[in-house]
UniProtKB/TrEMBL annotation:
Annotated active site: 23
Key word Hydrolase present: yes
Enzyme class: hydrolase
Top-level taxon of the source organism: Bacteria
Keyword presence, Cytoplasm: yes
CDD domains given in the database record: PTH
Reaction equations catalysed: an N-acyl-L-alpha-aminoacyl-tRNA + H2O = an N-acyl-L-amino acid + a tRNA + H(+)
Annotated source species: Micrococcoides hystricis
Record's protein name: Peptidyl-tRNA hydrolase
Annotated site residue numbers, Discriminates between blocked and unblocked aminoacyl-tRNA: 13
NCBIfam families registered for this protein in UniProt: pth
SUPFAM superfamilies with a match to the protein in the record: Peptidyl-tRNA hydrolase-like
Lineage: Bacteria, Bacillati, Actinomycetota, Actinomycetes, Micrococcales
Amino acid sequence: MSADTYLVVGLGNPGPDYARTRHNIGHMVVDELADRHSGTFTAHKSKCVQASVRIGYGGPKMVLAKTTSYMNVSGPPVAALMKFLSLGPENLIVVHDEVDIAFDAIKLKRGGSEGGHNGLKDISRVLGTRDYLRVRAGIGRPPGRMDTAKYVLQPFNATERETLPLHLDRCADAVEALITDGLTTAQNKFH
C-alpha cells in the first residue's frame, strides 16, 4: 500500500441503540466522509466495515472504517485492518469523542495519553504504540454529577442536534486537512 493511503477509523459501538449517541461521533464523522466522497461501506473480516475513497481526483486515498466490535475492544479490528492494508501507525487516524473538549470544538494530536478513553487505550495496547493521529471531537462534560459512562451513551440533546451536522462537517474537514496539509497546519486551522 502506498504512503498516500490513510486508514481513518471512527470509533463507536455497534447497533441502532448506540447509533446516535455521543460515544458514536467517530462513526458519524466517518459516515460524513463516506457521503462526501461517495463511498460505500462493505463488511471486512477484521470486524470493521470499510470504504475506500480519494480526496479529490487522484488525491490521497482514505480507507474509512467503523469497527463493528464494542468500543472497549477496538484494538484487534484496527490492527487487523492495518495489517491487511500494510499500513503503519503513521498512516492511522482515529476519530473519537472527547469529553474534555467543549461540544463542537475539535483538537488534533499525535500520540500522548488516551485520557481515559477505553477505545483508544485498547488500540494503543494492541498496536504497542500511542503514536498515531487523533481527531478529538468535543462532546463536552456531563452535567452536574452525571456519570461520564452514562453521559457518553446518551443521544445528543436538542440544542446539540441543531449544530451537530456542522460539527461533523468540520471534523471531516479536519481529517482531510491532516492528510493533505499535515498535523501542524491542520492544528493551526482547527484549534
